[in-house]
Design a protein that fits this description.
Layout: H1 3-23, H2 40-50, E1 80-81, E2 85-86, H3 89-97, H4 99-102, H5 115-125
Antiparallel strand pairs: 1-2
Helix pairs in contact: 2-5, 3-5
The structure holds heme C.
Heme C (HEC) binds near residues 47, 70, 81 and 107.
Length: about 130
């Protein structure tokens, strides 16, 4: 192998490694979550029950016009949760379940929501495209 080829090969390797680091993050989940198994209808009821609308504007939920937290309009296609956490179905479920564990000190309180409820709520949020 000539010197030039060796250098090229090394560059290619570096690029390949970089590529796998960059694409290691799951960017596809944010925009669909098609095979996500939560019950979005039940999730919408839970969103009303837990009063998320007191802090968030939420399309499709009556009187959900809070302005403490960000609007959840098109949350299904947002890249990051709270500007930090990759928006995937699992991360969204963890966020709803325990936002203080995911991002200590942020202004959304953890309110003892079960993982099942959090999953259904996430399924509803993923209908907001
Ligand atoms: C006491 C007010 C409050 C309540 C109640 C509340 N949230 Fe939040 N929520 C916030 C705040 C504030 C943030 C922003 C946190 C941050 O970015 O650091 C947030 C962030 C979020 C995010 C991320 C939004 C984004 O654009 O990144 C989602 C999703 C969310 N909340 C869903 C819910 C759901 C679902 C409920 C009901 C189970 C709920 N929240 C209840 C205050 C609240």
């Amino acid at each position: 192998m000539g010197d030039k080829t060796a250098i090229l090969m090394r560059r290619l390797l570096v690029l390949l490694c970089l590529g796998s680091v960059l694409t290691g993050y799951d960017n596809t989940a944010a925009s669909g979550a098609q095979d996500f198994d939560g019950n979005s209808r039940r999730g919408a009821d839970l969103v009303k029950q837990y009063g998320c609308g007191g802090c968030h504007e939420i399309p499709g939920i009556a009187n959900a016009d809070g302005n403490v937290g960000p609007s959840l309009r098109r949350i299904a296609t947002r890249t990051y949760i709270a500007g930090f956490i990759q928006n995937t179905p699992d991360n969204m479920t963890f966020w709803i379940e325990d936002p203080q564990r995911m991002l200590p000190g942020n202004a959304m309180p953890s309110s003892g929501i079960s993982q099942d409820d959090a999953r259904d709520i996430s399924a509803f949020l993923y209908t907001l495209k």
